Amino acid sequence: MQSEAPRISVLVRSYNDAAFIGRTLKGVFSQSLAPFEVIVCDDASSDGTRDIAAGFPVRFVERPAGAYKPGRTLNALVREAKGEIVVFNNSDAVPCDRDWLAELVKPLVAEPGKPAFAFANQLPRPDAQALVRKDSLRAFGDGKVQATWRFFFSLASSATWKRLLVETPFDEDIQYSEDVEWTWRNSRREKDPVRVVYCPDAHVEHSHNYTLGELARRFRGEGAADRAIFGDQPSLVRELSSAARETLRDWAYLAPHPSDWAEIPVAPVRRIVQRLAHWCGSRQ
């Protein structure tokens, strides 16, 4: 007799995502794989996000009081989960088909005794700017580029065993890249290291057209996190060299598409803002 599949808890964090959360939850509840529960933690949204979520059979969990710390909220959600498998899916990460969940948990179900953390393929939205599309396809896509990087992981749509997160909770002090910190730390432990698995066939729609100010804020936070996680030392030369290389890749990507040429002069500005902000963050 075949054993019953592990029960799954889908954990959704939301904040002012009224434009997406309805589509996201509709996609979640249309999955071919069942059973599962859905738990939503809304961070005091003011745009009706919670009301939209309440129209679905979800269970709400209030985020911990005090200043927002992503690790603290994630740990609180994990404690509430009843499933053996925990799936994190941001409220703006829209499942693209009915097999997203099955594909995402496939590496876990295939080897139930093995510690692993799987993450999905994030496709750019239809309105994504050209350079956002390029960055998304480069980071995700078939996975060949990310495999050459030192380390890559995204919690936005991902899955792991609850027991791993209970045994080793998320860091509650780090403000950015708490997902990278957890997976990097646990992938390097001597006993039962956690295997990070990319699932290219688990598709969600997820991208952001950040302003320059939003880019600067994000990369400043990631710079500080990279120093805390990897021990990176600040190097303005390294950051500017990275900006130059990425700008050349941007131009090569834009060149065959005349409809996107308006972004050609934006590319170097975008990359310099990113890398200078990352350098500033790494000096903290």
In a nutshell, what does this entry contain?
This protein is α/β, with parallel strands linked by helices and 284 residues long. The protein has helices at residues 21-28, 49-53, 70-80, 100-110, 130-139, 162-167, 178-187, 212-230, 236-254, 266-282; strands at 8-14, 36-42, 59-60, 85-89, 94-95, 116-123, 157-161, 195-205.
Q: What are the key terms here?
A:
284 residues; alpha/beta; Spore Coat Polysaccharide Biosynthesis Protein SpsA, Chain A; 2 domains; eight-stranded mixed β-sheet; 10 helices; 8 strands; globular
Textual characterization of the structure:
The mean pLDDT is 95. The relative contact order is 0.13. Strands 3-2-1-4-7-6-8-5 form an 8-stranded mixed sheet. The protein is globular and about 50 Å long. The protein is built from 10 helices and 8 strands. α8 packs parallel to α10 (266-282) and α9 packs antiparallel against α10 (266-282). It has 284 residues and is an alpha/beta fold. The longest helix has 19 residues, at 212-230. The protein has 2 domains: 8-205, Spore Coat Polysaccharide Biosynthesis Protein SpsA, Chain A (Alpha-Beta Complex), CATH 3.90.550.10; 212-282, no CATH class.
| Beta-strand content bin | 15-25%
Question: What is the H level of CATH, i.e. the homologous superfamily of the largest domain?
Answer: Spore Coat Polysaccharide Biosynthesis Protein SpsA, Chain A
Number of helices: 10
**Strands side by side in the biggest sheet:** 3-2-1-4-7-6-8-5
Q: Return Rg in Å.
A: 19 Å
Largest sheet: 8 strands, mixed
Please write the CATH class name of the largest domain: Alpha Beta
CATH topology of the largest domain: Spore Coat Polysaccharide Biosynthesis Protein SpsA, Chain A
Strand-pairing-aware structural class: alpha/beta
Please, how many domains?
A: 2
Helix content: 40-55%
